[in-house]
Amino acid sequence: MEKNKNEKNVLGTALQVAGTDPVTGFYRNGFCSTGDDDAGVHVIAAVITEEFLDYSKSMGNDLITPFPQYDFPGLKPGDTWCLCAKRWKQAYNAGVAPSVILEATHEKALEFATLQELKNTKNS
Question: Is 81 helix (H, G, I), strand (E, B) or coil?
């Protein structure tokens, strides 16, 4: 699936590529696109940290171990990945949210976090 040409980021401009090494996104197209079949709402483009990986694993979501059957390579610090909005917000509230790439974060993220919260962890 390609990105919908009308998709916007949290800044109101065209959604940008989040990551291609590894290829991220619910649809594995490099974009934090979403749709009705994306129950986890994978819309927040984040630069992964070890602290977040440890936190996510402690919450029952192991993002470190590869799962080839789901086209999931396993993540390491520095990777860019489209995170579930609820998990990112949970990590934000716990003080361990990874930084966000606003231009690549889908506008649907604003249903879960404020622009200010997303900017507070902005990757510069």
Answer: strand
Asked if residue 124 belongs to a domain, the reply is: no
pLDDT in tens, 69-78: 887 899 999 9
Helix (H) or strand (E) holding 56: helix 50-58
Q: Could you give phi then psi for residue 109, rounded to 5 degrees?
A: -60, -25
5, pLDDT greater than 90: no
Alpha carbon distances (Å) from 94 to 54, 88, 97 = 12, 10, 8
**Is residue 120 situated within a structural domain?**
no
- Domain limits for position 58: 1-112
Is residue 117 classed as helix, strand or coil in its secondary structure? helix
Contacts of 96 (CB under 8 A, 6+ apart): 49, 51, 52, 55
Residue 90 corresponds to which amino acid? Q
Q: What is the pLDDT of residues 16-69, one digit of tens each?
A: 999 999 999 999 999 999 999 999 999 999 999 999 999 999 999 999 999 988
CATH of the domain at 15: 3.30.56.110
Whole-angstrom distance, CA of residue 117 vs CA of residue 107 = 14
